[in-house]
Amino acid sequence: MAKILLLLASLSGFTGVGLGAFAAHGLRNRLPDNLLTAFQTGVQYQLWHTAALIGVALLLLRSPDNTLLKAAGVLFALGILLFSGSLYTLALSGLGKLGMVTPIGGVLFLIAWICFGAGAWRLS
């Protein structure tokens, strides 16, 4: 599981940096400020939670049977996909209904942090 999370973190970090550069250089004069801000928020949350994925994976190397840490990793990955992904799609497509998906990703992040803390607490 740790290896999979590290690979996901690698992919997420790569795409997060690429999308951040795309926003800064390719979208700055093409999107209204509110949509550019939404896109940039997606990038920020993606990169912060990529770091969290790395932390979870490293802890799983120490404690591979820790189900709370495994849950945290899965929830962080799903949160990135739903939260950041919906903001990217919203900003680029203008489909306002996608805004309903963003809070689901945010809730997954919150649950992931709870699992992370509880899983870390259980470490010997």
Automatic annotation (TrEMBL):
Residue ranges annotated as transmembrane are 44-61, 68-88, 100-121
Any one of the GO CC terms: plasma membrane
Q: Among its keywords, does the record have Methyltransferase?
A: no
Protein location: Membrane
* Keywords, in A-Z order: Membrane, Transmembrane, Transmembrane helix
State the similarity comment: Belongs to the UPF0382 family.
Q: What is this protein called?
A: Uncharacterized membrane protein YgdD, TMEM256/DUF423 family
